[in-house]
Predict the structure.
Amino acid sequence: MTSPMETDEQLPNGNSSTVAAVATTASKTGKLAESLKLEHQFLRVPFEQYKKTIRANHRAFEKEISTVISGISDAADADLSRDDALHQLNSLVSRLQGLKRKLEEGSLTEHLQAQRCRTRLEHLESADVDNVSDWNAVRLKRILVDYMLRTSCYETAEKLAETYNIQDLVDIDVFYEAAKVIDALKKKEVAPALAWCAENKSRLKKSKSKLEFQLRLQEIIELVRADQSIRAIAYARKYLAPWGATHMKELQRVMATLAFKSTTECATYKVLFEEKQWDYLVDQFKQEFYRLYGMTVEPLLNIYLQAGLSALKTPFCYEDDCTKEDPLSQEGFRKLAQHLPYSKQHHSKMVCYISKELMDNENPPLVLPNGYTYSTKALEDMAKQNHGKITCPRTGLVCNYTDLIKAYVS
């Protein structure tokens, strides 16, 4: 029978190093796969931007080429003079030159976005045992930037990214795109939001989004509010007729406001004229925006905090004598964890209140006459320093060490 050492010696030259390289690659691939489970958004956002730019450049190319070919065909069929034909051809050449500049700019943008995808992949692959502390520090800064962007602290987020040189690892430009639409909606302007819907029409249709429909309905509400009933009817015929087959009830409800007017006291229609409808549109746009780019609806900071607090949360955390070392002894953390589930503990652990050491068979718990329990080591040290006397740190009870009763951990 051949031993492993003998087998290695019999391998051809270079095979041992090949096996080691394969093992290293497999290890890195495994780490990358684990990272991807938590970093889906990290890679998805730049990739979606990359695809979006490619589609936009392709559409621009097809549109311009189609126009040029149509222009050449018209010029060939028309009976033009030499000067007119020359002028027509020069115009077409100018359009092609303009298309060339646009494609060059688009190509540069595509290259930058592809580079950003590559940078993020390399960053995930760089996670290693030797640099896990630094890698996690960068992750924390990315999470903080994400939270700032979602809470509209754009300048602070940009400054933090610049300070630590992580611009390619965060999505500032994407959130600036969303900020324009959000600011417009807060000013009761739907044009930028409708333009965004048109730009992403095919993908929104696949996800069965109702955002464009809701924006159109709000346009009608504003026309009714301004007593422009004729314009509201014309607008509905032009833009909302295609939605009738799938959203007839909502459409009928909004069109009924033509009869009830904005001054109605009927609760069913009065709510449509409330200011909070614009807040609903902002929230709906954010949800569609996050879904489009594969982002989490909740900020990553909230998700990580909730996961950590849920892992720490136990019924004991909410008792008055909860140890101060427990994060959930603080009121702020208790509020954050209020609606989170308790952690699932298959085996409970007893930690000494005095020494903070684990109480087990090696360091069993001792019970005082008042019912409080502390570790043997901590109480022995206290007894040695106080001539065999024990003072309960919680109630102040004083007793002899011989009065303690040993408890058993099952």
The chain is about 65% helix and 5% strand. The longest strand covers residues 365-367. The longest helix spans residues 82-125. Residues 53 and 316 are 53 Å apart (CA to CA).
